[in-house]
């Protein structure tokens, strides 16, 4: 077995967390958590970064974000690609393109996701299918595409963006289908970690709590009472700043996590301890 990502006993701690020479792919990398993760990888000296956005409407934003990252971290080559993660062939094709363009692929982050506030009894089948397509099948198809390349090339790392909604039902909005998809991602992470380990592929997840992103701002603007309930339920008493997630993703992408697989890192200010 090729231990592509395993450090040696004498590897300095500073190098354990470095992504120097590595190429990373992030779905949904043009905003919110995905953008923070992509930026964190560039800060950690990644050689290449592929930002995957979902459609023509997000192309300009993705290109702008890529240019901003490269301007700040010129050592990182940043490229933008479009793919609907709910379509298996699209994410398969784009992952192969990234591998061909950069000549290697080391880390894939299945981050793209969507959210719905529709109560369960009002939800139409097409809405449930859309959310499930992006939030569950998206990570599955992304992991499949990554694993096919990693299996052929000595290993790699897959990181899923799950949610504390995969561990508990949050109130007062409940979010039944969103919770269900994120719970599925948490268990998918464990199942794939067990199945892929023989190919030196590590699969882990990050389960953020409430993060100060554009999506959260949109929710709070529509219902200011939400923030009061969330903060009452959170020991930290505040939203997580999106940059506070960078460290855990870099850890999981780097050699520092060489013996970590099937794990789910909850980053929620203590929300799930109640």
Largest sheet: 7 strands, parallel
Radius of gyration: 18 Å
Number of strands: 9
The strands making up the biggest β-sheet line up spatially as: 3-2-1-4-5-6-9
Distance between the termini: 43 Å
Strand content: 15-25%
Name the shape in a single word: globular
Helices and strands, in order, run as HEHEHEHEHEHEEHHEHE
CATH topology (level 3) name: Rossmann fold
Domains, number: 1
Name the helicity range.
40-55%
Derived structural class? alpha/beta
CATH superfamily: NAD(P)-binding Rossmann-like Domain
Number of helical runs?
A: 9
CATH class: Alpha Beta
- Give the second-level CATH assignment, the architecture: 3-Layer(aba) Sandwich
Poorly predicted parts? none
- The averaged pLDDT comes out at 94
Task: Provide key terms for this protein.
alpha/beta; 274 residues; 9 helices; 9 strands; Rossmann fold; 43% helix
What does this protein structure show overall?
GO terms for molecular function: oxidoreductase activity, acting on NAD(P)H, oxygen as acceptor; oxidoreductase activity, acting on the CH-OH group of donors, NAD or NADP as acceptor. This is NAD(P)-binding protein. This protein has 274 residues and is α/β, with parallel strands linked by helices. It has a single domain, classed as NAD(P)-binding Rossmann-like Domain (Rossmann fold, 3-Layer(aba) Sandwich). Helices cover 43% and strands 16% of the residues. It contains nine helices and nine strands. It has helices spanning 13-16, 32-43, 59-72, 88-102, 125-152, 176-196, 214-222, 225-232, 246-253; strands at 23-27, 48-53, 77-82, 107-110, 156-161, 201-208, 211-212, 240-241, 264-267. The strands form two sheets. A seven-stranded parallel β-sheet has the order 3-2-1-4-5-6-9, with helices on both faces. Strands 7-8 form a two-stranded parallel sheet. Strand 1 (23-27), helix 2 and strand 2 form a beta-alpha-beta unit. Helix 2 crosses helix 9, helix 4 packs parallel to helix 5 and helix 5 packs parallel to helix 6 (176-196). The mean pLDDT is 94.
């Amino acid at each position: 077995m090729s231990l592509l990502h395993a450090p040696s006993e004498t590897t300095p701690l500073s190098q354990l967390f470095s992504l120097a020479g590595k190429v990373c792919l992030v779905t949904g990398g043009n905003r919110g958590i995905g953008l923070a993760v992509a930026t964190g990888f560039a800060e950690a000296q990644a050689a290449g970064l592929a930002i995957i956005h979902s459609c023509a409407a997000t192309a300009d934003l993705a290109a702008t974000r890529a240019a901003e990252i490269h301007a700040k971290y010129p050592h990182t080559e940043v490229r933008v690609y479009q793919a609907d993660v709910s379509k298996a062939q699209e994410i398969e094709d784009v992952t192969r393109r990234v591998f061909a363009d950069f000549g290697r692929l080391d880390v894939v982050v299945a981050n793209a996701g969507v959210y719905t506030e529709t109560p369960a009894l009002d939800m139409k089948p097409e809405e449930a299918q859309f959310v499930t397509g992006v939030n569950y099948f998206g990570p599955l198809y992304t992991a499949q595409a990554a694993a096919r390349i990693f299996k052929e090339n000595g290993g790699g790392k897959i990181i899923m963006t799950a949610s504390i909604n995969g561990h508990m039902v949050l109130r007062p909005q409940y979010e039944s289908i969103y919770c269900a998809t994120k719970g599925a991602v948490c268990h998918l992470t464990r199942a794939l970690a067990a199945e892929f380990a023989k190919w030196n592929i590590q699969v882990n997840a990050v389960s953020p709590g409430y993060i100060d992103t554009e999506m959260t701002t949109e929710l709070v603007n529509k219902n200011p009472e939400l923030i009061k309930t969330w903060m009452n339920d959170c020991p930290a008493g505040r939203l997580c700043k999106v940059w506070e997630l960078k460290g855990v993703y870099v850890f999981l992408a780097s050699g520092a996590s060489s013996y970590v697989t099937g794990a789910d890192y909850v980053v929620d200010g203590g929300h799930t301890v109640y």
